[in-house]
Each structure stands twice: as C-alpha cells, then as structure tokens.
Amino acid sequence: MVEIDLNHLYKKYADGEDYAVKDFDLHIKDREFIVFVGPSGCGKSTTLRMLAGLEDITKGELKIGDKVMNDVAPKDRDIAMVFQNYALYPHMTVADNMAFGLKLRHYSKTDIKKRVDNAAEILGLEEFLKRKPADLSGGQRQRVALGRAIVRDAPIFLMDEPLSNLDAKLRVSMRAEIAKLHRRLNTTTIYVTHDQTEAMTLADRVVVMSVGQIQQIGTPEEVYQNPRNMFVAGFMGSPAMNFFHVTYKDGVISDGKQVTLKVPEGRSKILDAQGYNGKEVVFGIRPEDIHSEQAFLDTWPDATVEADVVVSELLGATEQLYLKTDASEYVANVNSRDFHNPGDHIKIGFDINKAHFFDKDSQMAIVAEPIPLESMD
Amino acid sequence: MQSSQVKRISSRHSYLVKGKRMSTGSIVLNYAVMIIVALISVFPFLWILSASFKNNENMSSIALITKHMTMVNYSGLLKFIHFDKYLFNSIVITLGGILIDIIFSSMAAYPLAKMKFKGRGFISGLLLSTMILPASASLIVNYITISRLGLLNTFAGIILPGSVSAFSIILLRQAYLAVPDALYEAARIDGASELRIWWSVMLPSVMPTITTVGIMDFINKWNAFLWPTIVAQPSHYPIATALQSLNGQFTYKFGYIASSTILSIIPVVIVFMMFQKNYLQSISGAVK
User: Which SMART domains does this entry report, sorted A to Z (chain A) (predicted)?
Assistant: First the structure.
C-alpha cells in the first residue's frame, strides 16, 4: 500500500521571480494512475521532479506512505522513473541498463537475471538484451527505459512525457502498452504529458495544470464533461471547445448578429438565478456538438445558424469543418457522410443542451453548484 | 586528387572543388603552394633521417641520399650511451604524467560541469586564466617547491609540476557538459552515489575526450625538454633532454644526435598515426 500526499507544494527557482508551482495539493491513492496534463511551462514536470527528489521543495510537505519525504534522497524514495529522452546509459547493453539499479542495491546475480529476463519478456526485448542503446529504434529505447523501471519492482512509477519523442503511430501503440503494463503491474503511476489524448486514455484521474496551479482534478469524464473553467474546457478535447462571447437576455443568447440561440429552461434558470440576465457571458460548445445533418436541423430549428465553410478536413469517419458566421470562426466535427466543400454556404445546428457557460471575467463555469477543484467520490 | 572532391563541370577550364568553382590555374597554384609548404615543413625531418645514415665525411652534404649510407650511427649510439635507460626514463615520465593528468583533470572537471556550488564560475575562470601564463613563468616557483619537497633528481620531481593541465580540465569540462542531465538523474534514482555516478555513468560517456587528452599528453610529455634539465641529473633525463647533453659531449658526432633523434620520435610517430583522426578532431574541436 502506497499513498502519496502532496500537501500544498510550492516551488520557486533561485532565478525565478514567481512560483513555478503554487499550492499543489493532491492525495494519490494506492495503485492509482494519475496524469498531470497542461501546456509546457505549467509546472507539471517540476511537480513530478519534486516528487522524485530531483528538485527541492520550496514550501509544503511531501508524504509517501506515512513518511515525510521532503529531504529524502531520490534513491531512498523507492520510486522508478522513465524520462522523456529515455536517459539510457549509452555505454551499457540493454541488459546492463536494466540491471544497473539492481546491482547498486546488491541484488544477487541470479535474482538480477531473473528480473531482467522477466522485464524483457513483458516488453518484448529478449533479442535486444546484448545490444547498446545506439543500435535500437526510438520505440525499443523507450521500452528499455520502461524495463529499467519495471525490474526495480518499485511501488511508484514516475513518467515524464515518456512518449513525446516517438512518432505518432508508435505513440499510440506505446500508449496502449503503458495502459496494459499498469493493469498488469498495478503500480501507483504518476504520468506527465502535454497531450490531452494521453491524459484522457490513460488516467484514473487527471490533474489539469496551468501557470503553476491546479485547474481541476477529476476522472477524464469529469474534466471533459464538467470543466471547472475555460482553461480546462479549452485544453481537454481535440479539436478544442469553441467559445463565443454573447449577451444573455431572457432565455436567449446572442452575439448581436446571426448567432442567436434559445437556452433550454434548465440552463436559463441557473443563469437567471446567478444574476447573468442582461450580461455578457462566454458560451462554449464542443465541435462534436455542432451538427449539420438534416434530421437535427429539422428537430431544433431554434438552434440553427448559417455558416460558410472555410476549410474542410476529411478524417475518415468524421469531417472537421472550419466554419465562419459573421465574425465568429469555429470548428465542427460532423459525420463524413455530410461532406461539405470549402466555400459552401450551409446551415448548422448547435446542440445547446450540451453547451457550457462561463463568466467572462473569472472564466469559471456557470453552474448550479460550483464545480470543486477536486471532485469527491 | 580524389574524384569525389574535384568534379569536372561544363566549362573546359573550371572545376568544382569541395563545392567551390575553381579554374585550372588556381588549382595548380593552390597545390604548388601546398606542396612547397609541406616540403619546407618535412625537410628538416628528412634531413635528420638522412644524416642518421651518413658517415662523418659526408655529414655536411645537403644531399638527402649519398653514396655511403651506413648504420654506424645507430650501432655506435647504442654502444656509447645508455639509450635503453633514457627510453625507460621517458616512458616512466610520460606514462606517469598522463595517468596523473587523466585521473585528476577528469575528477576536477566533473563538478565544474555538473554540480552546482558557489564559486563554480570563478574557479573555471581561474583555471582558464592560468593558460595565459607561459610555462616558463612557473619554472622558479616550481623549482623551489620541488626542492623544498626534497624531490630534486627524482621522477616525481620531473612528473608532478605541470602534470595536471588546465587545458585538459577545460576540455573535459566541455565533454561533461555535453552529457545530458537526465543520465545523471536516472543514475541518482537508480541509487548510485555521486562517486558511482561519476565512475559508472559520466566517465564512460567522456571516454573519447579522455583518449584525446591522453594523446596530447603523450606528445607533450614525451617531448618535454627544459624542465628535466633544471630539476634532475642526467641519470633521470628522458630522451629529449639526454640528446641535448649529447650535443655538448660529442660536438663532432652529429650522426649520433641524428640517429637518437630518429629513435626518440618513433613512439610519437606511431601514437600519432594510430590516433591521427582522433587527435585532429579534438584539436579542431578545441578551438571551435
């Protein structure tokens, strides 16, 4: 059983003016797969490195199990880490790379061999054990880096953008492999990425970060369906959520031009109750909640606008339409059976039941009950 | 001239040399100058080589090949002086110096490159500044130090001063800087101590530079001449210095000086030929 407590961690670099990480507060459960996600420079890697002991903690307390770890050396934290650029020892063979940590911990030769062979089997590296890292492909190197973590049998895995040096196709297959590995080893894993797809597909819980602060903690569904603020709404999901600056008045939102839509009663009640009647709000809608099929347009005539197709990208099953209505530009993800060419003038419908509303100043979601930073389950 | 370097192109009198268009005339001129410079540089060596095979009568002849070529200078030299003893001295002094330089400069350079501590930049700057001083400026201080330590006329006295060079430290520091920090961090997480990280991870990563330092040391230390004459008696002289003493004793035996010069540079030539590529790379890398 390993639980990790990051209690109000702060990090300030000697040459930095502001905190790189501010008030990072998180409890990680045993065997949980946690993903820190955010744009570069948001403090996610710094937080992971504080956890690993590679960076000092400026303020706050880090506990692994019951022990405070702030001043414990990395080797005594019982963690294994996978680095973005693999960090394999170039002069050692694959087997020696994996065995290095075990040798330092004085494991017996037979035990080392057993563990290395076992890891090599799990990762399909048996035939490469005698090779040097320079003779391996990127994907194989990343497997060795994973193997080096596996052999240690450490209760905590830290992964710092482990897939970002791989090409797109390999990234997808390695992603699945990491998920498989986690199910098999059941190790508490903390994974850092800037790729929201990796976060969505791998995580038990996602920690969305921006400018050194946690924006929201929740399951992938929670942060996707109920984003706490505009940053989370815009960051999670690809393509990103569309935002419109509109004025809300008497159950209708309008950008003063064509985009004039009726807000369903349930949502308008919340907006009214919180005093937004007559005020400007931000209306957010995901690309997949914008439709072009006739059936939808017929059912929801109040929720349609006319738009010009600027660019259309056929992705296979779906098609991404870059649309323009008056001054507003936005993206729709529609079924590719409804193919449209650039320059087409079409009618599209907004599924307003799926809409999100945000305060234009605080950028927080406007909902009946404020969404907590960390959802309680 | 290799065909890959020079390519005939459309015009009759112009060629492409390493991507630059040159006329036949300028190519001829270029090569003529290069050949002349090469001949001027290599002539003294060829002359000494030739002199070592001449007898006393035609020693002063400028011709490289004369009628009476002989091995007498070599056989005479080996009978006359303890060439093997000076060879042994040279080997001890050179290998001792190389070993000390590699051990200490590779240890000194590491923290300067990879550890954060106060005054790191100052120490690096201080090291760099010692390179401005000419070696002869330190002769007196070194002599006093060695004499006070009671190391006059010992191998240690010859080897120690100047064995660790600031240049080696700076060269190695650059090599350590090029090793990714993630390697160091991975080793820390793997459980390695600082010393172990240096020995098992960092040192193997800078091996090419250590080889370079070794070669440069070999050439410098093998040819070291002045210091041993100051600090030691002839019994401890390396070959280069011993040759100088020949000069005084055998003013008319120039053939011995020639033959011993040839014998003494054979190891340097062998080492240089073996590691030529590495050596040239490091020299061009060092001034980049």
Answer: AAA
- pLDDT (tens digit per residue) in A95-126: 999 999 999 999 999 999 999 999 999 889 99
| B145 and B27 fall within a common domain | no
Cα–Cα separations (whole angstroms), residue B23 to B3, B9, B10, B18: 16, 11, 12, 13
B window 192-251, beta carbon within 8 A of A: 192, 196, 200-201, 204-205, 207
Locate the domains of chain A by residue range: 4-234, 240-286+352-367, 304-349
pTM higher than 0.95: no
CA distance B22 to B15: 5
CB contact under 8 A, B187 and A100: yes
Q: How far is B288 from chain A (nearest CA, A)?
A: 25
Of A73, A87, A148, the CB nearest to B182: A87
- Tell me if B129 is assigned to some domain: yes
Per DSSP (E only), the strands in chain B are 6-8, 14-17, 20-23
Q: Which helix (H) or strand (E) holds A366?
A: none
pLDDT tens-digit series, residues B162-189: 888 899 999 999 999 999 999 999 999 9
Identify the CATH class of A4-234: alpha beta
Neighbours of A259 (CB within 10 A): 19
**CB–CB of B187 and A90 under 8 A?**
no
Average model confidence (pLDDT) across chain B? 84
* Residues of B whose CB is below 8 A from A81: 185-186, 189
Q: How many distinct structural domains can be found in chain B? A: 2
Task: Answer yes or no: do A89 and B180 touch at CB < 8 A.
Answer: no
For the stretch B206-249, pLDDT in tens is 988 898 899 889 988 888 888 888 888 888 888 888 877 776 65
- Residue A375 reports pLDDT greater than 60: yes
Nearest CA in chain B to A80: B189
Q: Which residues contact residue A131 at a Cβ distance below 8 angstroms, ignoring those fewer than 6 apart? A: A93, A94
pLDDT digits (tens, 9 = 90+) for A179-231: 999 998 889 999 999 999 999 999 999 999 999 999 999 999 999 999 999 99
Is there a single domain that holds both residue B36 and residue B121?
no
Instruction: For chain B, say whether A175 makes contact (Cβ under 8 Å).
Output: no
CA nearest B202 in A: which residue?
A: A89
Q: Any CB–CB contact under 8 A between A103 and chain B? A: no
C-alpha dist (Å) from residue A4 to A20, A72, A155, A193: 21, 14, 11, 19
Residues in A touching B186 (Cβ below 8 Å)? 81, 83, 87-89, 148
Predicted ipTM?
0.85
A90 CB near a chain B CB, below 8 Å?
Answer: yes
Q: Residues B194, B228: contact at Cβ < 8 Å?
A: no
Handedness of CA A134, A136, A142, A146 (dihedral sign): negative
